[in-house]
Structure formats: C-alpha cells, structure tokens
UniProtKB/TrEMBL annotation, chain A:
GO terms for cellular component: plasma membrane. Residues 68-252 form the ABC transmembrane type-1 domain. It is a multi-pass membrane protein. SUPFAM superfamilies: MetI-like. Gene3D superfamilies: MetI-like. Belongs to the binding-protein-dependent transport system permease family. The keyword Cell membrane applies. PANTHER family: ABC TRANSPORTER PERMEASE PROTEIN MJ0413-RELATED (PTHR30151:SF0), ALKANE SULFONATE ABC TRANSPORTER-RELATED, MEMBRANE SUBUNIT (PTHR30151). Pfam families: BPD_transp_1. InterPro entries: MetI-like, MetI-like_sf. It comes from the Bacteria. This is ABC transporter permease. PROSITE patterns: ABC_TM1.
Length: 259, 292
C-alpha cells in the first residue's frame, strides 16, 4: 500500500521531469511548424531554423563576441560599482542616524523613478560614451541594493550586537563583521534583484545609442528587417540573463554559508 | 547537617529597603559592583516608563548574588546597567571602582538567549572575545579549546550554532563570556529557555564552574529554587517599577549540590522567599485595583 503510494509518487515525479525536459524543444517544434505552415507571415515570424542560421552568421561574422563582450562589460562593471556603492551607503544609513536623515529622504525620492526615464538626460550629459551606459546600470542597481542593505542593517539582531559589544569588539569589526554578516541575508536578496535590474537598464542604455552590444545588434537588425537576427539577439539576451541569474542564485546560496 | 547556624534572614524594613552591606572599613574589601540610587527610565511613545526605581546594592568580590522578581520588574534593565548597556537616568553604577558608561571586556554577560554569532563555529565564537582584545589567532583558539573541553563540547568544536541544542548553545555562550576572563559575570536568566532536566544539569555545571573561575556573579532568575541553590545572597525585587524589596543571605555551605534542596535551612529560606513574593504579588494587585 505505502509502496504503491511511493511508486505513484516517483512515477509522477519522473513524468514531470520528462515533461520539463521536453517543454522547450516542444515549444520550438510547434513554433517551427506554425512558421512553416504559412498561417503566419514568415518574414515577421521566422521559424527557429532561420533564427539559428542568423545566429550562426552572427557568430561567423565575428561580431557576436564583440557584442557579447560590450554588453557583459556594461552589465558587470555597472553591477559591481552600483552594488558596492549601495552596500556601503546602506551600511552607513542603516547604522548612523545622522547619515540616514541626510540621505534617506533623497534616496527615497529618486528610487521610484524608473532608470529608463534617465536616458534623455544621460545622453545630454554623456553623449553616446560608455560612461553614460555604465551610469544607467549603476543608477538602476544602486537604490535596490542600498534599500536592501539599509533594511538588513536595521534588522540585525540587537542581541548579537550587544553580545559583540560585551566581548570588546572594536567599532571597525562591529561594522565589517557583525553588522555586515548580520545583514547579509537581506543584502543577498537585494543583489539578486539587482542582477535582473542591471539587464533591463542595459537594454535601455544600448537602445539609447551604442556602437556594439547585443541589444544594439537587435536594433540594427530590426532596422534592416532581419527578423531572424532580432530573435536570435533576443534569445542570446535571454540566455545570458538566465545564466547570470542562475549562477548568482548558486553563489547566493553559498554566500550565507552558515544556514 | 547544616542546621541554622545563624538566622539567614536579616530583619528588614518594609518596601524600598536597600540592604547594602555596611560601608567598607579598611578591613572589608571594596565592593566589586556598587549600584547607587540607580533609576532607569525609558522613553516610550506616550511618555516614560520607570524600569528601575532608585535601587542601591553592592556585590562583594567573589560573591554570587541572584536577582529574583516578577516578569517586567526591571531585572534585565538593572543587569544591563551593570553591563554598561543601559545608561543611568539617575544615580550610578560602579564596577571595580569605575563608573559604567559603556560595556567593558572585564565584565562578561550571558543573555537569556545564547546570541551566538551564527556565521562562526563553536570554536570561533568562543575565540571571538580574545581576538577582539588583540590576542593572536593561535592564543585565542587555545583559550577556546580549553573552554570547549570544560563545557564538554569537544566533539562539536567546529559545529555551527544552529546545529546545536538550546542547552549546548547556552553552554557555548557561557564559555564565550568566560574567554575574556571577566572579573564580573552577569547572567540574565541563562537557563530560562531550557527544559527542567537540562536546566538541572546546567545548574550543577555552573556550581562546579564557579569554584574554578574567580568571578563575581550576578544571576537573574524567576526561579527561587535556582536562586537559593546557586547563590550566596538573593535579592528580591518588587513588581515594576523595579526596587529591591529584600536582601536574603542564603548562608548555605559550599561546595553545594542539589542535595541541599532538602536541607532545613534551605526550606526555611525558601518559605520566607515565597511568603515575601506572595505578599508582594498581592500588594501589586491591590495597587492596580486602587489605580483603576
Ligand atoms: N528598550 C525599552 N524601551 C521601553 N521600555 C522598556 C525597554 N526595556 C525594558 N522596558 C520596560 O522596562 C520594564 C522592565 O523591563 P525588564 O526587561 O528589565 O524586565 P525583567 O524583569 O527583565 O522581565 P522578564 O523577567 O520578563 O525578563 C518593563 O516594563 C519593560 O516594558
Ligand atoms: Mg529579563
């Protein structure tokens, strides 16, 4: 009886794994069939095979790696600068009342403005330079990480702080160990959100005008009506952010190592 | 046996009595902890709460004093003031001759919750204090290893706190507080969250420990048995605002074990404590009735 239940459970489990593995191929197959059936306009909805050819051309032309590098650079450097700033300022505003009174109201006003809205002013300030694109990513990432850190610092167990005080923990170590690690679970959540924010600010940054980059390539392809290339670019972008999110999730799991 | 060697109950005046030992003459050693007319007030949204109301007391070197009182009467606040975690609103707290304005590493604290650093192993939790005070890593870990042996957790030296039971965690917290060799050890209901059996074992451990370390100990508890079993003196606090009602010398012999729980001197003392607490409880109740 119980073994029967157990078997049923594993059968259901196996089935769902199988279905999960087939989900994407099935979707691609249906798409291929529909695109070739002439129900839809194949120029606007190219079949996956056309997309694959476009992607291969992209790679062979040598532009792919240049575009990948340009986009990765913007996302990574922007993410690092923005999160470092966000963590540092979050520690300060979370820990020191005066710093918080000085900065928090300002940050709370700026935070809800969608970073994309800054594209016009960024073009005025930075032209089409890399600095402007980095600025957008940094800006987008900063507030999320700042807020997560700020809240995390305030939620650090008071008991831990008191215990550390009683043991003679110096001020420096209090901030760099007790407060930082105490807030780490919150910070990690903020960082994970920041990963996806950095990608959507990247899109805004490259659409605003660039000379290389995955989104830039999508835009060029669109202007040339190369829908296969457009979709190939989208797939590349999706794959890239998926990998980034997954690897960050794996890192985050280990970051809070004591859980 | 130990029959009444002297009357352990000093006659006391009613309420707000402050039964500090006589002023030290040249022969008597200076008190390790001296609380002088201490009041502590908290700001709350609607005004202020008096948590501790003009308390004075003294704890002599090497003494083990228990603070007993109903929940919310200000025991933790008083202890925190001795630790330098709470500033006096009025009056002062002197430890080892110096006023307490901030925590000091010569004063160790064990809280009601273990408050272990979750990101550190048992060993590194205990080594935290010596490291913070500038000892070398090797030296700090040696101190930690000695203490781990003493609390009997050798097998768990590299375990993380969340993998330990509550009793084990509290033992680590005690070892961590001892690692800085404090001259004063403050304990705030350290066994409050433990089950009866673990608690009994921990009390025995503490009695043993006390004979090995050379600290003056202030121990907060709800439990009168625990207070009498462990301490030289029991201070009974009134229902909030905290004041010291009575100062009872336990006057039981040391070394001590749970065998004294059937000792007549112990039973007399316990009866007296219970009477006092009952009258106090009734008083507090009547006060509430007249107020409303
Ligand atoms: N940080 C605080 N802010 C405001 N009021 C406080 C604060 N800490 C304590 N109090 C108040 O002071 C009084 C004494 O609290 P305290 O924690 O010292 O009691 P206690 O005797 O330790 O109680 P328990 O036995 O339940 O631990 C209570 O009325 C409590 O509400
Ligand atoms: Mg308390």
């Amino acid at each position: 009886m119980s073994t029967g239940g157990h078997n049923r459970a594993t059968t259901a489990g196996r089935l769902s794994v199988l279905v999960g593995a087939l989900s994407v191929p099935a979707f691609v197959g249906v798409w291929e069939l529909i695109a070739r059936s002439r129900i839809v306009n194949a120029v606007l909805f190219p079949p996956p095979s056309t997309v694959a050819v476009a992607v291969l051309d992209w790679i062979h032309s040598g532009q792919f790696f240049g575009d990948l590098w340009a986009s990765l650079f913007r996302v990574t450097v922007g993410f690092l600068i923005g999160t470092t700033g966000g963590i540092m300022l979050g520690m300060l505003t979370g820990r020191f009342r005066l710093v918080s009174s000085l900065l928090s109201p300002l940050f709370h006003i700026l935070r809800p403005i969608p970073p994309i809205a800054f594209v016009p002013i960024v073009i005025l300030w930075f032209g089409l330079s890399e600095a402007g694109k980095l600025f957008l990513v940094v800006w987008g990432v900063f507030f999320t990480v700042w807020l997560a850190t700020h809240i995390g610092v305030q939620k650090v167990d008071r008991g831990l702080v008191r215990a550390a005080l009683m043991l003679g923990t110096p001020r420096r170590q209090m901030l760099s160990e007790i407060i930082l690690l105490g807030a780490l679970p919150y910070i990690v959540v903020g960082l994970r959100t920041a990963v996806s924010i950095s990608f959507y600010t990247l899109v805004a940054a490259e659409l605003a005008g660039a000379f290389a980059g995955i989104v830039y390539r999508i835009e060029i392809a669109q202007q040339n009506m190369q829908t296969g290339q457009v979709m190939g670019g989208l797939a590349a972008l999706g794959l890239l952010s998926f990998v980034a999110d997954r690897s960050f999730a794996a890192i985050a799991e280990r970051a809070v190592w004591w859980r | 046996m130990v029959a009444m060697m002297h009357n352990p109950l000093r006659p006391t005046s009613p309420l707000r009595l402050v039964d500090a030992p006589p002023e030290p003459s040249s022969a008597v050693p200076e008190a390790t902890i001296r609380v002088e007319n201490l009041s502590i007030v908290f700001d709350v949204p609607r005004g202020q709460v008096i948590a501790v109301d003009r308390v004075s007391l003294a704890v002599m070197p090497g003494e083990f004093v228990s603070l007993v009182g109903p929940s919310g009467c200000g025991k933790s606040t008083l202890l925190n003031a001795m630790a330098g975690l709470e500033r006096p609103f009025e009056g002062e707290v002197m430890v080892a001759g110096k006023p307490m304005l901030a925590p000091r590493p010569d004063i160790g604290m064990v809280f009601q919750q273990p408050h272990l650093f979750p990101w550190k192993s048992v060993r590194r939790n205990i080594a935290h204090g010596p490291r913070a005070l500038g000892k070398s890593r090797t030296e700090a870990l040696r101190i930690a290893d000695d203490l781990i042996d003493m609390i009997g957790l050798t097998k768990f030296a590299s375990a993380y706190p969340h993998t330990l039971s509550g009793g084990m965690q509290q033992r680590v917290a005690i070892a961590r507080a001892l690692a800085n060799q404090p001259r004063v050890l403050l304990m705030d209901e350290p066994f409050g969250a433990l089950d009866a059996q673990t608690r009994a074992v921990m009390q025995d451990n503490l009695l043993e420990l006390r004979d090995r370390i050379n600290a003056t100990i202030v121990f907060v508890t709800h439990d009168i048995d625990e207070a009498i079993l462990l301490s030289d003196r029991v201070l009974i606090m009134s229902a909030g605002p905290g004041r010291i009602l009575r100062d009872l010398s336990a006057g039981l012999p040391r070394p001590r074990s749970s065998a004294i729980l059937t000792d007549p001197a112990y039973l007399a003392l316990k009866r007296d404590c219970l009477d006092l607490i009952r009258t106090e409880g009734r008083k507090a109740f009547e006060q509430m009735e007249t107020v409303t």
